[in-house]
Fold this protein.
Amino acid sequence: MKTAFIFPGQGAQTVGMGKDFYDNFDAAKKLFDEADNALGYSIKKICFDGTADDLKLTANTQPAILVVSVIVNEILKSEGVTAQIAGGHSLGEYSALVAANSLKFSDAVVLVHKRGQFMQEAVPVGEGAMAAILGLDDDAIIKICAEVDEVQAVNFNCPGQTVIAGKTAGVEAAVEKLKAAGAKKAVVLPVSAPFHSTLMAPAAKKLAVELDKIKINDAAFPVAANVNGELETSAATIKQNLVAQADNPVKWIACVEAMKNFGAETFIECGPGKTLSGFNRRIDKKIRSLNVENLDSLKKTLDALRK
């Protein structure tokens, strides 16, 4: 039986995340310390003692979630639970690549911190928006977004939930059109930029420069790429995909299908929240989904795996 590790993206963060791991596992202490040294400021302090607003800043959110996600991966490995394949949603793809030994942990922490900065710089706060569209099929959403300037579908999360992004006024106009077309619900998301839209092109260019500075290795096992849902191990392709990922849609349904087709029967969500486990249930009810975000969920997952 093959196991997939899946890693969450932005929005899963909570103040206090990772603290019980830090208090109980040397691996967690080591990784938080390594992250603080690489960043030049304490992501540990922001995770444990910061405000929700501090943690919500994109340049903090991204390294914070990556650190906690990688810690979960290390703890599971120490318990004899290993992945044969991995994937991650947006930022989570970087965590998956660390798990697959394609990216060095300290490089990835700095990279996603900069990625957060670049994304925020690409579109000033207030000028871009995102909205989750519920209960309308993807083709209808894509068609209606094409009728509105600088708005597009950017996250294909699960059947019945697709996220759009673009200029704020355009997203607001698209939301009204989508509701009129039969969307059950349209929720403007509390984010600071229109992630994965073409408006992120300046961020993608800056990210390419940073990726040229670090060593990327072939992945030890396949990682599903957000940009196309294909399984990749080649360092050169992984690098291209990470650049493209910044200003292209996240095809998460395709990623899950690719991991299933590879033979993954158990999916373990590594990191804060249960968002991806929820998507799994909508994609395929037969997927066995577990999650590890704290000591309690670690125990439950290990107990479930040992049965």
User: Anything to note?
Assistant: The mean pLDDT is 96.
